[in-house]
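To: structure subgroup
Subject: Chain for Friday's discussion

All,

I'm putting the inputs and outputs inline so they're searchable in the archive.
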Amino acid sequence: MFRRVDDFKTIWQQEADKTLAVFAAIPDAAAHQAVDPQHRDLRRMAWHLVETVLELPQNLGLKVKGPVELGSDGFIAPPPPTMAEIIAAYRAVSDSLLDHLGSWSNTELGRNFTLYGETWTGAFALFVLVTHQTHHRGQMTVLMRQAGLRVPGLYGPAKEDWAGFGMEAPRV
């Protein structure tokens, strides 16, 4: 859990960079990859992360801005056609989130907010924002593998990265 706003900002920037690395590794030609037609594809999942960085902080009184606005249902429809546009939108909302958190003191982290029918502290809501993004990024890397794409190393080397170290990838 976060005890200082600056701690969240540090973690968020690191995690946002990892998210951008995943987005950048998805060519537009592969952005349609999904488990099946009833699930989000890579493009829609990436766009969901943009939506979430706009939507969740607004429940905390943080008026995050981006190149697009949320609809009354809390979603932006449809996603833009290119990953470059999604990357630009994500950068904008992520930077806006960090800017708006400048108005928070550490005491806001202990304040109670109502989100999704539950009472969450500000610290817990920010924790959920980070873990929600990490959860979907993990889903995206699986879809990327299914599409034959190279997955960036996020918390350590990806399978293909080991050769760059002059080493064999660990056996599965």
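Points worth raising on Friday:
The CA atoms of residues 91 and 129 lie 15 Å apart.
The mean pLDDT is 94.

D.
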